[in-house]
Amino acid sequence: MDSDHDRSSAGGGKDVWPQALNRPAEARDTPEAIPPTPLVPVPVPEPGPSATGRGIAGLSLPYQVVAALALSLIGLLACTQVAMVFLHVAPSNTLSKQHGKTIDRWIYPEFEQNWKLFAPNPLQQNVAVHVRADVVGADGRRTTRWMNLTHEDGEQIRGNLFPSHVDQNELRRGWDFYVNSHDSENRPNGLRGDLSERYVRRITMLRLSERDYGGTIERIQLRSATNSIAPPPWSNEKISTRPVYRVLPWWTVTPEDLPGRDADQVRDEARGVEENQ
């Protein structure tokens, strides 16, 4: 009590604590008052010419013309591609007969179409085409070993991101064409037999011409080795996977079988194979 009385009387009888408590917070916390920061207006950027439009409309006039021409060319090529593929896969009609060569030049070999609407019986066999040749040279006549042409095509396809249609389809479809146009005794069963035989012979000689046997090939012989695909492990089906051979007779090589013929003739022959399958 006495101490409180002394503090109040030391200032001339007036209490100093209420004055200290009634001061503003700024005055109590900081020795000097901080002036407020003036507000500076931020300029708003005006929209430029490129912001007034989107896509082609946002380009200048010369670029708009170039873009319009490029889009028109792409659309024209797309429509042409669709029309050519449609005429190629469609049944024979007036347009395909009249412009068949033009359609083939557009389609082959990059855009070849060989699809069917239904495929209820997928192939369950591996078919390999082999060939051997009679070669006449300075040391006399000799017969080469059997060469697996299908295996060579498979090596060209395996691991290739963009395999050619020649490696994928030429030999395979040529052999299918021959088998479907001949009976089990290798006798032609229709008018397509001679065409299929000449086609297979020319494919074979084209492959053999890439090798040097030290002489002239006078005769060739082909055979097929067919292996059934083994069933999966969970199946109880028993299938023999031993190869079954179909051996063709010896063919004498003629000048027409040798490579180097006219490109249009080769294209017309390939077209005949497509139409007959």
State the separation between the terminal residues, measured CA to CA.
124 Å
Given the C-alpha coordinates, what overall shape results? elongated
Q: Report Rg.
A: 44 Å
Give the SSE string: HHHHHHEEEHHHEEEH
Structural class call reads alpha+beta
Helix content: 40-55%
Tally of alpha and pi helices = 10
Please provide the count of β strands.
6
> Residue-averaged pLDDT, rounded?
80
Q: What is the percentage of strand-forming residues?
A: 5-15%
Task: Give a short synopsis of this structure.
The chain has helices at residues 2-10, 17-21, 25-29, 61-89, 94-98, 100-107, 149-157, 165-180, 192-208, 263-276, and strands at 125-137, 140-143, 147-148, 215-228, 244-247, 251-252.
Characteristic key phrases:
277 residues; 10 helices; single chain; alpha+beta; 6-stranded antiparallel β-sheet
Helix-strand blueprint:
Elements (H helix, E strand, L loop, with lengths): L1 H9 L6 H5 L3 H5 L31 H29 L4 H5 L1 H8 L17 E13 L2 E4 L3 E2 H9 L7 H16 L11 H17 L6 E14 L15 E4 L3 E2 L10 H14 L1
Antiparallel strand pairs: 1-2, 1-3, 1-4, 4-5, 4-6
Helix pairs in contact: 4-6, 7-8, 8-9, 9-10
Describe the protein's architecture and organization:
- With 277 residues, the protein is of the alpha+beta class.
- The chain is 42% helix and 14% strand.
- A hairpin with a 2-residue loop joins β1 and β2.
- α7 (149-157) runs antiparallel to α8 (165-180).
